[in-house]
Write a structure and sequence with these properties.
Elements: H1 2-11, H2 18-32, H3 34-45, H4 52-84, H5 90-123, H6 131-165, H7 168-208
Helix pairs in contact: 2-4, 3-4, 4-5
């Protein structure tokens, strides 16, 4: 836990709100706790019969799963929108982010509930009773799709970056292109510096008068 705090403190942006940092810290702790719980689970699986340790570990797995589920779908999207949203104060930004995220969820949930009610009336099955497994399945499908997408991109983009990095001509052309942008930024900074100096001279002359 201390090492996770050290990592977050080292890589986080100092301008990020402390509440966001604490939520991210909790998410990291719950995620990395798998490294500790999984060996315990494997060791306890070798013990025959039901024991108190197995029951406690099962409770921990369920608690961690639902905490991460709530953080992933209920809390982290709000804070993500909170960091991108403008506002006069933090409470206003948080309220706007909360309304935006949950109004989006509501727009997705209403058609799903209507479809389930239709299927329930047509086939006379209790589809609404299985809402929790449905939400779990949707979350798992989304996560697996995202993993496949990111891994597929990484399997192509990472070797391609090494391949291009080995071509010195392509690398030099890239740096030449970046050099133009850097020079433009330098000239703009020089102009801004001169403008600030003029304002300071005007301010000093007005104070002397």
């Amino acid at each position: 836990m201390l090492y996770i705090g050290y990592l977050i403190n080292g890589y986080r942006d100092r301008a990020v709100d402390l509440r966001v940092v604490l939520v991210i810290y909790l998410t990291w702790v719950l995620t990395f706790s798998v490294v500790i719980l999984l060996p315990l689970d494997i060791a306890l699986s070798q013990v025959p019969g039901e024991t108190k340790a197995k029951s406690t570990l099962r409770t921990l797995w369920n608690s961690f799963y639902w905490l991460l589920y709530i953080l992933t779908w209920g809390i982290l999207p709000v804070f993500n929108d909170y960091l991108k949203r403008g506002g006069f104060d933090s409470s206003q930004k948080f309220n706007l982010s909360f309304k935006a995220v949950y109004s989006y969820y509501l727009k997705l949930l209403v058609p799903i509930l209507v479809m389930l009610l239709y299927l329930d009336n047509k086939y006379e099955r209790n589809y609404l009773v299985n809402l929790v497994p449905l939400f779990q399945s949707v979350a798992h499908c989304y996560g697996i799709s995202l993993i496949i997408l990111l891994m597929g991109y990484g399997l192509v983009a990472i070797p391609r970056s090494f391949w291009r990095g080995g071509d010195h001509e392509v690398t030099m052309n890239y740096f030449y292109f970046q050099l133009v942008n850097v020079d433009d930024d330098r000239q703009q900074a020089h102009f801004n510096f001169g403008s600030h100096i003029k304002h300071l001279h005007l301010l000093r002359s007005s104070l002397n008068e």
